[in-house]
Design goal:
The protein is built from three helices and five strands, in the order H-H-H-E-E-E-E-E. With about 150 residues, it is an alpha+beta fold. Strand 4 (about 135-140) and strand 5 (about 145-150) form a beta hairpin. It is rod-shaped and about 90 Å long.
Length: about 150
């Protein structure tokens, strides 16, 4: 019985294994090894020695890995890490408004009108702000605006 298997078959099997691992992990982890195996399989078809195939597979894998780190991975990460668009709530930060119901720090009650919308509000300094006072929105905490008197 002769078990003389052509190396190109071994390289293709390894390439398929690396691609399956890549498909399962979805993390760009082994695709460069698959590329190295493809080049090594082509080298075997041209009759180049096994040592040259192994060295080339390693070199191609390393070069692809470095290229992935430098160019491909940052592009993918940038595409997936888009900043969230501001909501309507975020747009009121920095805007001026008016107190329509006195802001009382002890009871936690008070309302302001900013950009035509009525919001629950509290003072940044924990002081009472009376109805009719102009305010500026500093931030949002839960569903309440944090405001300061202008």
């Amino acid at each position: 019985m002769d078990f003389n298997v052509s190396m190109w078959i071994v390289w293709l099997i390894l390439m398929v294994v690396f691609l399956i691992v890549e498909a399962v992990t979805l993390g760009i982890t082994t695709v460069w090894c698959a590329a190295g195996c493809l080049v090594a399989a082509i080298m075997d078809l041209f009759g180049l020695p096994v040592a040259a195939q192994v060295i080339t597979m390693i070199v191609i894998s390393v070069v692809c890995f470095i290229a992935c780190l430098i160019w491909i991975r940052p592009a993918i990460d940038a595409k997936h890490s888009r900043k969230a668009d501001p909501t309507n709530a975020d747009r009121v930060i920095g805007k001026e408004g008016v107190v329509i119901k006195t802001i009382e720090p002890l009871s936690g009650k008070g309302q302001v009108k900013v950009m035509g919308q009525v919001w629950s509000a509290k003072s940044d300094s924990n002081q009472t702000i009376v109805e009719g006072t102009k305010i500026e929105v500093l931030s949002i905490e839960s569903v309440k605006l944090i405001v300061k008197e202008i």
